[in-house]
Every structure is written in C-alpha cells, then in structure tokens.
Amino acid sequence: MSLRINDEIPNLKVTTDHGEMQLHDYIGDSWGILFSHPKDFTPVCTTEFSAVAKLNDEWAKRKTKVIGISVDSAEDHVKWKADIEKFGGSKAGFPIIADTDLKVAKAFDMLPSEAYLPEGRTPADSATVRSVFIVSPEKKLQLVMTYPMTIGRNFAEVLRALDALQKTYKVPLATPADWQVGEDVIVALSLNDDQAKEKYGELDKKLPYLRTVKS
To answer: 212: helix, coil or strand?
Structure first.
C-alpha cells in the first residue's frame, strides 16, 4: 500500500548501528527525517551522509531527529561511518537502519513487495531507495523527495522545506515559491479577509486569492 502525505508512518522495529529501536519511539515528540540509500560505500551517498552530519546543529535547532536507511548490515554502517566522517570532517552521530530484509524500503513504498537483494548485487538493484521523508511529531508523513542515483541531494532544500513545514503546520498559512525564513507567507483561503486581518494583521493583497502577511 502506498504511503501518502498525512498518513501515519509504520511503527517498525528496526536494527541500526545504535541497536534496535521502534521508529515512533526514536522520533518521540520531535520532527523526524528519514533519508535512504541503496548501498553503503558508494560515492554520492557518502557525500550526502557527510552533508547530514555537518548539519547536526541545524537539526537540533529545529528539534528534528534524523535517521539514515541503507540496505546493508549494521556492521557495514559502522565501517562506512568512518569514511563519512573522514570525508566530511563531522561526526555522524545519527543512527542508520540496517534494512537488509528490505522491510523499511517496502513499507515506505520505495521498492515493490517482490523485490529482493541478489547475490553480488550493485546499487542498481535497490536504486529507488533514494528518498527523503519528513515526518511530523504526530508521526505523520509531511513531505517526500526522491532522487535518482546520479544526483546528490540538496540538503539546503531539505532544511528550507523543513522550515516551511514547521512554519505552516496546523495553521492557515502557506509559503510561496522559493520562500526563505523571515519572508512573507500566504494566508490560506479558508480565512476570509476579515478573519485573516483579525488573526494576522494587515494583508498585502497581490490578487484577490493571493494574500500575504509578515512572517
């Protein structure tokens, strides 16, 4: 079954290089980001894990827990982290799920139910395990980004999307294209002009249906 925006993510018991844990327990009352990879010791993925490690302070400021997923063993993850930290110069303190049975990849709809890992496999055998999932404190999926094998992820965009989600979560606001923290936000059409003014103050009406307010 497909996992869609606002669906609760499955509360899987997973094995990681930090031991066994339940996904919901790990996220707790924080926001969560799961970022997945098709194989350890691969060049693009190493740069991505290094980028995540460099952002440790940014995740903490946003009360967000990150967790990696790769379809290799926890023992391989421990060895791979040495390369990740050597390349990026930052400690990779987040856990990485050892999804050797593809349980997580299939539950998050990254691979079909009949998928398996053949002997002598290459990253191409699990190529669609290249997604970022942002999850709310209620354990509900808020955003998915899926990348091909050849394109390294832009974690500045992941941070921007996380900021936008946190700004608009459970309030009648939205963010415009290319929005950055501190810029004006859009008032949802669920509020009429009077309601919007009462809640947010003066409106900047670009169009009858496009009204912005100070962030």
So the answer is: strand
Question: Which band of pLDDT confidence, cut at 50, 70 and 90, is reported for residue 109?
Answer: confident
Q: Is the pLDDT of residue 165 over 90?
A: yes
- Of 169, 130, 168, 163, residue with least CA distance to 146: 130
Q: Which domain holds residue 25?
A: 13-153
Is the domain of 128 the same as that of 26? yes
Give the alpha-carbon dihedral of 16, 22, 28, 34, to 10 degrees: 50
What are the tokens at 27?
């996220």
Q: Considering the chain, what percentage of its residues have pLDDT values greater than 70?
A: 92
Assess if residue 69 is contained within a domain: yes
Cβ distance 146 to 133 under 8 Å? Answer: no
Phi-psi region of 63 (alpha: psi -120 to 50; beta: other; left: phi over 0): left
Count Cα atoms within 13 angstroms, Cβ side, for 130.
Answer: 22
45 is catalytic: yes
Catalytic pick from 9, 27, 45, 53? Answer: 45
Closest among 78, 125, 98, 133 to 21, alpha carbons compared: 98
DSSP E strands, 23-83: 31-37, 64-70
**pTM (2 decimals)?**
0.92
Q: Write the CA distances from 83 to 115, 127, 131, integer angstroms.
A: 29, 21, 22
Cβ 157 vs Cβ 28: under 8 Å: no
Same domain, 39 and 141: yes
